[in-house]
Design brief:
Elements lengths: L10 E9 L1 H10 L7 H4 L10 H4 L2 H11 L6 E10 L7 E16 L3 E11 L5 E11 L24 E5 L5 H5 L12 H6 L9 H16 L7 E8 L9 E9 L2 E8 L5 E10 L4
Amino acid sequence: MGLHLDAMGRKIGPLSKEYAWKDVVLYALGVGAGFEELEYVYEKRLKPLPSFAAAAVFDFFWEAGAASGVNLAGVLHGEQDLVLHRPMPIEGSLATEGAIEEIYDLGAQKGAIVAAEAITSDSEGCELFTNRMTIFGKLDGGFGGKPPPRRDKLVPQRPPDDEMKDRPASNQPLIYRLSGDFFQLHADPELARQVGFAGPIMHGLCTYGFACRACIKALLPGEPERVRRFSCRFTRPLYPGRPIATQIWHMGDGKAAWRVVNEDTGEVVIDNGLLEYVESE
């Protein structure tokens, strides 16, 4: 069928979503929060994790995929860049709209990249956050399009300043998917094997949520509302139940670089991470 190149620039949305405090808690449980971080899972003093804002617009991700015509048999998450214009409330109504900005060609043997942007506002029309994302279609390359722009490497060539260790549960994707990403690759062992994996893999945005928790714990303990940007590139699949380390480099001026490493293999599963935050007064 091929990619729908005429989808570039076409408006997607507005897409509406209602959420309540239980959705905020369910998301936090899905990315590994527990008794040590009650502010994410207990309604008495609840604060949304900033990365909830990426999961809250998953419908847009699929709308962009469908509009582009990307082959779902080869779809993976490429990059995520979340910019928070203000802290998220613990409940509310969201309206999201945006468009596919560009479709890049990596070549017939490497695939294609669909780049899209979504802006989300509250019920009063005030912008809350912006998500810029890429969808990697490993079966869609070779259509003669332009290559993607080169990205600067953010992670320094020195040991990290902090390393936060964690281990997603063996059933972590089954919890995380209840926040809206029902793609069968993360739940169906037979489908996962059909597309070349040993079993269901972690959602990239689930591991992203683990990393967001880790960065806040290291740099902004108890103050997730200070986060203004959290971006990264997804580089390798991760199976649930494997130990991970979020490595963090302090960059100064309210910035930090980060990545996530599979501790069993040493492979970097999320790279080129950037955290921007409001420095304390």
